[in-house]
């Protein structure tokens, strides 16, 4: 029998290798940028079209290649960066596998122009799907330009697998930011579909971070500096009060290479212990230098993970140095030269007269009628307790009250037989009353009291309410999410949402990738009641907000939205509205751990059962459970 094993032809092997190296346009961006950095360029231009799907081009002014190297660089395992296995332990370059160019050339149309400084003429090569199409001598500037067109042209399955332009662009942006942050001394520029997104002159770390993030970043940063035998830590962490809900701006660089490390992230979080609000994440930009022989960067094909020899020591040093920096900033704010102007009284407030507090009175509120037929909503600005009902009219009722909720029939029926002991309803009073203490004696007939308080909050988490057949236990957070979700969705699709005009428009700053998302979301956000006075370059000015949120909640809502949409904005407007409604419900709902007054508990339960779909939260979790008397009896029978 003849042998059946064969060596794969090179172009097939390259295509297979490409699968590991090139997943999407962003992978090409990463490899080409890193090659340009390795070539000692001081000026690097990134040009992409259609999120990199049609073109990724990187132009550098680095050392360039000789004619022979220009041809050789497309061979697999062709690298100028290591000669022998030992070199792997003293790597100071990004690349070393000699795989990237061979892999990219196997799955795209590629054009390369390169010239070394001392040469008169350079080399111009075209290669498509691993096949050399042409090689010419050309007049060129010093350096190298790679243009990669029509990625995956010969692997339609991979091409179809690419995500929307928004998602792919985001990945490209991430790679660009990582390389540009790691090398502030290099001038980077970035163009997408003909427009310039970044032009970052050679600078120091701080300016580079500010250049990439946004204008307001500077005042948020606290420097970190620590030099020990095994590690040098430099960089910046953000002041605790600027921590965000999403994890977007967190960067570790080890020997100028972006890496991900859950372990080191944990060390940073440990340094912030006790300083952050629940669920908030600080931004950080940390540059670690360690001796190359104490790390192994070879364990991950795309090299964003890394293994350190002495992880525990690094953890301790990192945590201590950040703690120290944060401590200095907190203890001695007078010495902080980057004083936060946000904390000053804005000029316009000084000239504004203090507002006289007004009390709004609900003429229809009657303390003697059953709560479920006479709702009394208060709109308090104080975070946890503030929510509105599920009533569709709440959008236009910011005066302090919203119309009562019409509970659904099924909800009413739960209570049948329970409210017979209620005090008689009294015709509407023209004024609102303070609720009088009902119980004046220990020996009061507690039947009455029992019937009038239908809800109890336990563990600041659940609302328990008796019903005819037993009781229900409502999860307060999920129930409120459901109420808000339906309300937002209704406002966005059916009702004309009303907004509250802000006395002083809010000026909020975002990074350019976040701004791109916000611009796309703008029309949908407007249907919820947001009014944008301006939305350009790195900031938005908001002059109106939906009636059911407070001014201080605006940035939380937008942060949450940006983090929920990291993976792209849904294509059609229905799912876009749905995502926005869900995200806003998530950020605005009362949380587990919030104390609710009786009234609030009541409103919550009523609001929930006025919903179209009260059984599940917008995230498909149960909102309440029922316990029948028989179930309880059974437990006692044991
Ligand atoms: P690696 O970077 O792992 O060595 P690559 O396939 O990315 O492998 O590149 C192969 C070789 O081509 C590099 O080692 C380098 O010598 C050369 N090269 C690639 N890009 C450039 C560039 N922009 N300027 C100069 N030389 C380059
Ligand atoms: Mg490389």
TrEMBL record:
One of its GO terms (molecular function) is mismatched DNA binding. Residues 363-399 are annotated as: Disordered. One of its GO terms (biological process) is mismatch repair. Residues 209-327 form the DNA mismatch repair protein S5 domain. Keywords: DNA damage, DNA repair. Residues 454-596 form the MutL C-terminal dimerisation domain. Residues 385-399 have a biased composition (Low complexity). Pfam families: DNA_mis_repair (PF01119), HATPase_c_3 (PF13589), MutL_C (PF08676). The keyword Membrane does not apply. Signal peptide: none annotated. This protein is involved in the repair of mismatches in DNA. It is required for dam-dependent methyl-directed DNA mismatch repair. May act as a 'molecular matchmaker', a protein that promotes the formation of a stable complex between two or more DNA-binding proteins in an ATP-dependent manner without itself being part of a final effector complex. Belongs to the DNA mismatch repair MutL/HexB family. HAMAP family: DNA_mis_repair. This is DNA mismatch repair protein MutL. It comes from Flavobacterium defluvii.
């Amino acid at each position: 029998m003849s042998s059946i094993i064969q060596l794969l032809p090179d172009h097939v092997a390259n295509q297979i290798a490409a699968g590991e190296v090139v997943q999407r346009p962003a992978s090409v961006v990463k490899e080409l940028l890193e090659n340009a950095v390795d070539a000692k360029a001081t000026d690097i231009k990134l040009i992409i079209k259609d999120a990199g799907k049609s073109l990724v081009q990187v132009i550098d002014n680095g050392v360039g290649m000789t004619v022979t190297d220009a041809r050789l660089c497309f061979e697999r395992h062709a690298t100028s960066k290591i000669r022998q296995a030992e070199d792997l332990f003293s790597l100071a370059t990004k690349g070393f596998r000699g795989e990237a160019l061979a892999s990219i050339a196997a799955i795209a149309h590629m054009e390369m122009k390169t010239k070394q400084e001392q040469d008169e003429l350079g080399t111009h090569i075209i290669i498509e799907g691993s096949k050399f199409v042409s090689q010419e001598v050309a007049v060129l500037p010093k350096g190298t330009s790679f243009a990669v067109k029509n990625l995956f042209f010969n692997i339609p399955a991979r091409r179809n697998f690419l995500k929307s332009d928004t998602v792919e662009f985001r990945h490209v942006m991430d790679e660009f930011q990582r390389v540009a942050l790691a090398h502030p001394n290099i001038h980077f520029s970035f163009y997408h579909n003909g427009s310039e997104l970044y032009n970052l002159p050679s600078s120091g770390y701080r300016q580079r971070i500010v250049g990439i993030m946004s204008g307001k970043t500077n005042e948020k940063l606290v420097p970190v500096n620590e030099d020990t035998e095994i590690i040098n830590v430099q960089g910046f962490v953000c002041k605790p009060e600027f921590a965000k809900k999403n994890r977007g701006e967190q960067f570790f660089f080890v020997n100028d290479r972006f890496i991900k490390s859950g372990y080191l992230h944990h060390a940073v979080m440990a340094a912030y212990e006790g300083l952050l609000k629940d669920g908030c994440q600080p931004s950080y930009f940390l540059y670690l230098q360690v001796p190359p022989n104490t790390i192994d960067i070879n364990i991950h094909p795309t090299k964003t993970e890394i293994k350190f020899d002495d992880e525990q020591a690094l953890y301790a040093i990192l945590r201590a140095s950040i703690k120290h920096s944060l401590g200095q900033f907190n203890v001695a704010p007078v010495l902080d030269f980057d004083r936060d102007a946000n904390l000053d009284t804005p000029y316009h407030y000084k000239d504004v007269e203090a507002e006289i507090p007004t009390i709004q009175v609900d003429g229809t509120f009657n303390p003697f009628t059953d709560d479920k037929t006479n709702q009394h909503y208060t709109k308090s600005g104080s975070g946890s307790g503030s929510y509105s009902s599920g009533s569709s009219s709440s959008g236009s009722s910011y005066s302090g009250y919203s119309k009562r909720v019409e509970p659904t029939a099924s909800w009413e029926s739960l209570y049948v037989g329970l409210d017979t002991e209620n005090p008689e309803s009294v015709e509407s009073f023209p004024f609102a009353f303070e609720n009088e203490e009902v119980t004046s004696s220990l020996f009061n007939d507690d039947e009455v009291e029992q019937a009038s308080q239908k809800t109890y909050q336990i563990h600041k988490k659940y609302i328990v309410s008796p019903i005819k057949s037993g009781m229900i236990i409502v999860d307060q957070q999920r129930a409120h999410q459901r109420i808000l979700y339906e309300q937002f969705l209704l406002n966005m699709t059916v009702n004309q949402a009303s907004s509250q005009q802000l006395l002083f428009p809010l000026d909020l700053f975002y990074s350019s990738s976040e701004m791109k998302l916000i611009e796309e979301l703008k029309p949908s956000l407007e249907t919820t009641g947001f009014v944008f006075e301006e939305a350009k370059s790195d900031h938005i000015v908001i002059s109106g907000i939906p009636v059911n949120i407070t001014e201080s909640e605006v940035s939380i809502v937008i942060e949450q939205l940006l983090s929920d949409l990291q993976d792209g904005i849904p294509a059609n407007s229905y799912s876009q509205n749905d995502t926005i409604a869900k995200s806003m419900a998530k950020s605005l709902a009362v949380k587990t751990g919030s104390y609710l007054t009786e009234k609030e508990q009541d409103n919550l339960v009523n609001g929930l059962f006025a919903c179209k779909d009260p059984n599940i939260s917008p995230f498909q979790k149960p909102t309440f459970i029922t316990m029948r008397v028989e179930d309880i009896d059974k437990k006692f029978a044991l």
